[in-house]
TrEMBL record:
<dbReference type="GO" id="GO:0004816">
    <property type="term" value="F:asparagine-tRNA ligase activity"/>
</dbReference>
<dbReference type="InterPro" id="IPR006195">
    <property type="entry name" value="aa-tRNA-synth_II"/>
</dbReference>
<keyword id="KW-0547">Nucleotide-binding</keyword>
<dbReference type="InterPro" id="IPR045864">
    <property type="entry name" value="aa-tRNA-synth_II/BPL/LPL"/>
</dbReference>
<dbReference type="GO" id="GO:0005524">
    <property type="term" value="F:ATP binding"/>
</dbReference>
<keyword id="KW-0067">ATP-binding</keyword>
<keyword id="KW-0030">Aminoacyl-tRNA synthetase</keyword>
<feature type="domain" description="Aminoacyl-transfer RNA synthetases class-II family profile">
    <location>
        <begin position="101"/>
        <end position="317"/>
    </location>
</feature>
<keyword id="KW-0436">Ligase</keyword>
<keyword id="KW-0648">Protein biosynthesis</keyword>
<dbReference type="InterPro" id="IPR004364">
    <property type="entry name" value="Aa-tRNA-synt_II"/>
</dbReference>
<dbReference type="Pfam" id="PF00152">
    <property type="entry name" value="tRNA-synt_2"/>
</dbReference>
<protein>
    <submittedName>
        <fullName>Aspartate-ammonia ligase</fullName>
    </submittedName>
</protein>
<dbReference type="GO" id="GO:0006421">
    <property type="term" value="P:asparaginyl-tRNA aminoacylation"/>
</dbReference>
Length: 322
């Protein structure tokens, strides 16, 4: 796709009208209040569980290759090529060698294609809280993130009852443990296409979608040694049609297995030379973690039709922004 053809698709935005909407439409004030509390509440739970907060990495020679169509955001600086961070997954695998439990309020830039414009769920500049734990399983991640979500919902409903009544009066505080469904189970029940969306529409509480098919994720996602056709990965799915909330899993850390997974995914190893060097030296260890999107969490809590209403200066695929 040429630059000219991409520009022709871009939906124009009137900057003055957008600023007026920020000032006149109460949804932006309400959403940013709730979003601030989401950040505080998740941080509170992770801090209580003795996680160490690290600073985000915004540019790097390596970043998540992603598993779907997108544009690259790359530049060269003093002879070295950098990418804008799509996620800190590869950095987290190293960071947990320094501190066993870490989290980052991490900005991510993913230049999604314009077909994501009206999904309601996509921004190309968004924030997630990334967490990772050394020598942990996905069940360990479930336990902590369920606590974080339950605490956050309880706190928001207590602190901003009028806002919740206004936007999402039926919002339930989830109960623990969240239900778990394999991808196979969901496909058998709802069909091969749109099974995630249909399952979300039929749910009244968040649930974990587990056992992601091998080819659906990236090389760093750990292949289940007992069931090699699936990964020890997961997504958290919001109810009421709001879909994906969290993505995560256990991580590959053994050099030969990472190479095997790269080959399966047609990922060029030369793009990850530094990462592979660390793996080959035997430095990486088993870990598990996830990222929870802050804008999507806000959207679900307030039952909004699009994540661009959850923040100021939102960047929606295929639209001009400020």
């Amino acid at each position: 796709m040429t630059k000219k053809s991409v520009e022709s698709m871009v939906r124009k935005v009137d900057t003055v009208e957008l600023v007026k909407e920020y000032l006149e439409n109460p949804v932006f004030k309400d959403a940013t209040l709730v979003q601030s509390e989401i950040l505080k509440s998740i941080r509170h739970v992770l801090d209580e569980k003795e996680f160490v907060e690290l600073l985000p990495v915004t540019v790097s020679p390596i970043t998540d290759p992603l598993n779907h169509p997108h544009f690259e955001a790359e530049f060269e600086y003093y002879g070295q090529k950098y990418s804008v961070t799509k996620s800190m997954i590869l950095h987290k695998q190293v960071a947990v060698l320094v501190h066993k439990k870490i989290y980052i309020v991490s900005p991510n830039v993913r230049l999604e294609t314009e077909d994501k414009m009206d999904s309601g769920r996509h921004l190309f500049d968004f924030v997630q809280i990334d967490m990772e734990m050394l020598e942990a399983s996905r069940e360990d991640v479930f336990d902590i993130m369920e606590d974080a979500i339950i605490h956050t919902i309880k706190t928001i409903k207590k602190k901003y009852p009028d806002i919740i009544r206004k936007y999402h009066p039926s919002l339930k505080t989830p109960s623990k443990p969240f239900k778990r469904y394999t991808v196979k189970e969901l496909k058998e029940k709802y069909g091969e296409r749109d099974y995630e969306k249909i399952a979300s529409l039929n749910a009244d509480e968040p649930f974990w979608m587990i056992d992601i098919p091998l080819m659906d994720r990236e090389f760093y996602d750990k292949q289940d040694p007992k069931r090699p056709d699936v990964l020890l990965d997961f997504d958290l799915i919001y109810p009421e049609g709001f879909e994906e909330a969290i993505s995560g899993g256990e991580r590959e850390h053994e050099y030969e297995q990472i190479l095997k997974r790269m080959k399966l995914k047609n990922t060029p190893p030369e793009q990850f030379e530094d990462y592979l060097a660390v793996a080959k030296a035997g430095i990486l260890r088993h870990s598990a973690g996830c990222g929870i999107g802050i804008e999507r969490f806000t959207r679900w809590v307030l039952a909004l039709d699009h994540v661009e209403k959850t923040r100021l200066f939102a960047k929606t695929p295929g639209k001009h922004s400020i």
